[in-house]
Amino acid sequence: MDDIALPRYLEIRRDIQNRIASGELRPGDAIPSEHELKELYGCSRMTVSKALSALANEGLIQRRRRAGSQVAMPRTAQTVLKIHDLKAEIAASGRAYRCEILSRAKRAPDAAEIARLGETVAEILTLRLVHYADDLPCAVENRLMNLAIVPDAASADFSETPPGTWLLNEVPWTDAEHIIRADIASPSLARRLAMPRGSACLVIDRRTWQGGVIVTAVTLHYPAARHQIVSHFSPGAGFGASVTRIGG
Length: 248
Prior knowledge:
The chain is α+β, with helices and mostly antiparallel strands. The protein has 7 helices and 10 strands. The strands form 3 sheets. A 6-stranded antiparallel β-sheet has the order 3-4-5-8-7-6. It has a two-stranded antiparallel ribbon with strand order 1-2. The chain is elongated. The C terminus is likely disordered.
């Protein structure tokens, strides 16, 4: 399959996608002009325009008349349930944030992880950590990261900037999926979250994509007694939602 030549515009699109995914082009960075890209790739301006239009349709770049194209900022406010920055939310509430990394591994995915991430994912970073607010545990996070899309994650230090915050700042994404459910905490999870044995957890399973390829999959467990889903919406305007700690 790798020997099959792609149409020229798809080659250009894939090359720019890879430059964005690797971090060479970061959110807000300018994309070379159509004239510069035409000279670089040795093709027509129409071919370049078609590649840029495809990238814009995927949400990876923003095209502005006369201002040129830029790498899109992460679309944190464009899903039904927003992708949240736990560190920022806790800090905004006036509480001190910290996280504890329980485990971290770089390896090939197992069968269950392939089912969640897709068969094309060859190498992942797995992380398990606890988020704290004023030294009270507020969430346990289990995360899988596709190192083909976010190779810098393998060497990133997540002790100060947790992986969710890091991804929002570093990696543009185009699609997201949330599944919200309730579950009874296992004894070990209950201990981690400083909650009574047999208590319920609010669970959020999330996956995000970049141009049809999985970037990350994460499961967050919150103590149900200290959290709730809050939504704000208006007719015809859609709505946003947040996970907010209460009590404790």
